[in-house]
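Sample pair:
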Amino acid sequence: MKLHRVAAIVMRQLYLLRGSPARVLPLFAWVAVDVVLWGFITRFLDRVSGAGFDFVPMLLGAVLLWDYLARVMQGVTMAFFEDVWTRNFLNFFATPLTIAEYVSGLVATSIMTSVVGLLVMVLVARAAFGLSLLAYGPPLAGFLAVLFVFGITLGVLGTAIVLRLGPAAEWLIWPIPALLSPFAGVFYPLSTLPSWMRAVSRALPPSYVFEALREIAAGRMPAPQGLLAGGGLAVAELALAAWVFARVYRHAVRTGLLARYSAETVS
């Protein structure tokens, strides 16, 4: 792998951002809106519940972490979609660029964009609602690591779907975080789910993160085994997503799909 080729992928995305404020605004605008909206919801719940329970670290913290995962995923998919929309994808692979270098460039782009979104969310949550992520203690590093790896997994899998089915399949990718959130138990304990949904939850690394988050919000230290299990699952699923992407790419090259890649390609 040549690092200068990976850097070229990242540099292209930076030039796109520099030349278009419309691309920069979504990096922080929507996450800030989410934090403000849920921040006031948690304040309202604190006021009317009368239970003496602080909803801010549980609900607002969950929103912040879930939005972070979604930003990581979109950091990969949006960089890929930029190449699809501009019909630039084929040009990349007319060069010596390898698929590993291309995907690494997408991941590096995701790191930059997700860090921007995370910083904005942390600053807004701290300034407006007094939530500090440092209140979660040492497990916070594990939370962010597991969610980052799983977000990259979803991004790589999403690009594989679009690469195989064509740009018309883009609409399948955007709802993925929303579809997974009920199974991940973002806002409620997994014990409230029916047994078949809990079986799916056990295969999702974020579910271990949010269970640990609720333990901390309740004043208890979570068992490290859960977070370690989530981390192991995230790494294994990332390897599986990379394998799927490589298989789809080889199929696209072998069948000539790359040469026919256009907005009308759906199969």
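Confidence is low (pLDDT under 50) at residues 263-267.
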